[in-house]
Amino acid sequence: MLNQNQVTTFEPQVAIVTGSARNIGRAIALRLADKGKHVVINGRTKSEELDSLHQEIQDLGGKSAICIADISTEKGSKQLIQTAIDHFGKIDILINNAALRRNISFAEMDYLAWREVLQTILDGAYLCSSAALPFLRQSKMGSIIFMGGMSAHTGSKDRAHVVTAKMGLVGLTKALAHDLSQYGINVNCVVPGLIETVRGDSAGVGSPEHHKKNTTLIGRRGTIDEVAQFVEFLCSDQARYITGQTLHANGGAYLA
Fold it and tell me: Is the pTM of this model over 0.90?
């Protein structure tokens, strides 16, 4: 029981969400902000979507900072981490969400197309995690979340690069759980499946084949807010016994 003269202060956690301009990344940033965390939001290019998200977080009474940076490069990833330190002085949570989801057959895929996707999804996750590590080690509640993909586990037509990169995150999750447990950092991979999102067909990002073929046990697609709630739980103190796991949120799609 607290003495009447004692005053408790709770310093807000600081979270980084890469690729947070839209869809799942945006929902995660909003969820974390709504739970009292300071959030650094990120996009590769400046956009009205990021500005709108920043304003929405302010309207919630939260605090956020925008970092325009290409996290698939060492310079961009370090810029992102430095933005968090400059604005909030620390880092507790890193959500590696940034991804490219191109549709192209393997026969037509050249090396540049292959590398562009792996560089964003897999190299970006490595670069951001590496740059954030010195600061996550100072947190008493350090968490790294990699956002996987259902197609990495089912396979998907015209997505060899995406499938490969997302499955690489599963291996990275297990490896870092071993390496970083000594620092009290939890590492997990969240795999959303059959989630209703806005896709840009003009960039070759239509609905993948497994979205067209697969169904769920519960009879509907998931929402971005449901994924965000799951991610937020894994970053909470209630989930400190969970690490090294690949956790699926797909409405029972594997069983349907």
Answer: yes
